[in-house]
TrEMBL record:
One of its GO terms (molecular function) is pyridoxal phosphate binding. It comes from Ferrovibrio terrae. This is aspartate transaminase. Its cofactor is pyridoxal 5'-phosphate. Gene3D superfamilies: Aspartate Aminotransferase, domain 1 (3.90.1150.10), Type I PLP-dependent aspartate aminotransferase-like (Major domain) (3.40.640.10).
């Protein structure tokens, strides 16, 4: 068996979900919403399944969706994209990441990774023959440190995986950090694989700035988006990839031999959804922000230190005020067993130089679940 996968540990999501089931706990670990997603978008998918085309769609994606992606990004981010040469549809953002790494890496190429990071990054980099170089981000603001960036980049750097907004920290990089990273991309002639799946799930009036939109970066960025995150339909696995034509030609070849295509009825529904009026997008954000505020208030009243949550479905708690030697994994294990609430230790998203004082909750749940979790956590903390 390939050792990259055969020797990989069980994911923290599987571990905590199994414990949640075992202890009949409220599971706030895995990042999917209780909301079923917009009914009109789901209805479009159902109608397309029954009356639309159900054979192989075009490898690059159906024209309606590729055009809709280009129009959507022009509308929200002022990006000018040629839908025929710069837009491709994939079976989820994770496939897009795999395509990108397989397309641009040769064995021995170095890839800069910001940790904590989505758990698929490291095995995909290794499977593509890349050599990971880590930049460690730390709470509470998770900013990029230039000294760490300088240490990670080298003449062997071929790519950077850049997740913004950042999961699992629920933070948004300010423009200064984007410009700093951009300077290093240019200096070392590297390509940024931009995981921007949370681009619409931002709070408190924040707006998303795609790295590809910065001056001088148009030809060295791969922009990845996700219908699953935009429409709270995480099971659909419909991703968008945008890149300059020279890069896209190679990405398309990788995609051709990975999944080739994506269900046409889902593509048709997403094309419809991307054209929804602004009220949907602002309403979606407000609904999630209200849940975030409700949950953050309850955790704070329970005695926990809540870190800022600027984006995503997640909210983090800093455990260091509780104890100088706190261990996030042990805390989560104890909490699921004793309080019957499952969360995720953020140390699981590091490969090295771990931060072991932060735990992550998903707040995209019903109020009954959130309120029940707060009640259990408060009682757990009170018991000591």
């Amino acid at each position: 068996m390939n050792p990259i996968f055969a020797d990989a540990p069980t994911t923290i999501f599987e571990t905590m979900s199994r414990l949640a089931m075992q202890h009949d706990a409220i599971n706030l670990g895995q990042g999917f919403p209780d909301d079923p997603g917009p009914e009109d978008v789901r209805a479009k998918a159902a109608a397309a399944l029954l009356s639309g085309w159900n054979q192989y769609p075009p490898m690059m994606g159906i024209p309606d969706l590729r055009q809709a992606v280009a129009t959507h990004y022009k509308r929200f981010h002022k990006l000018d994209l040629d839908w025929q040469s710069e837009v491709m549809i994939t079976s989820g953002a994770t496939e897009a990441l795999a395509d990108s790494l397989l397309a641009i890496l040769q064995p021995g190429d170095e890839v800069v990774l910001f940790q904590p990071m989505y758990d698929a990054y490291l095995p995909l980099v290794k499977r593509a023959g890349g050599v990971p170089k880590f930049v460690t981000l730390r709470p509470p603001h998770w900013r990029i440190d230039e000294a760490a960036l300088q240490a990670a980049f080298s003449p062997k750097t071929k790519a950077v995986i850049f997740n913004n907004p950042l999961n699992p920290t629920a933070s948004v990089f300010p423009r200064e950090d984007l410009e700093l990273l951009g300077r290093y991309l240019v200096k070392y002639d590297a390509i940024a694989i931009c995981d921007e799946v949370w681009e619409h799930v931002l709070f408190d009036g924040l707006s998303h700035t795609p790295l590809i939109s910065l001056p001088g970066l148009r030809e060295r960025c791969i922009k990845i988006g996700s219908a699953g995150k935009i429409f709270s339909l995480t099971g659909w696995k419909v991703g968008f990839v945008c890149a300059a034509p020279a890069i896209m030609k190679v990405l398309a070849k990788a995609h051709q031999y990975v999944t080739f295509t994506t269900p046409p009825n889902l593509q048709a529904a997403v094309a419809y959804g991307l054209d929804k009026d602004d009220a949907y997008f602002t309403g979606m954000r407000q609904t999630l922000q209200t849940a975030r505020d409700r949950f953050a208030k309850g955790l704070t009243e329970a005695g926990l230190t809540v870190l800022p949550s600027q984006a995503t479905y997640f909210l983090n708690v800093d455990l260091s005020p509780i104890s100088n030697d706190v261990d996030d994994a042990a805390f989560c294990q104890n909490m699921v067993e004793q309080a019957k609430v499952a969360a995720i230790p953020v140390s699981a998203f590091y490969s090295e130089d771990q931060v072991k004082t932060v735990i992550r909750f998903c707040f995209a749940k019903t109020y009954d679940k959130l309120d029940g979790a707060i009640e259990r956590i408060a009682a757990h903390i009170k018991r000591g």
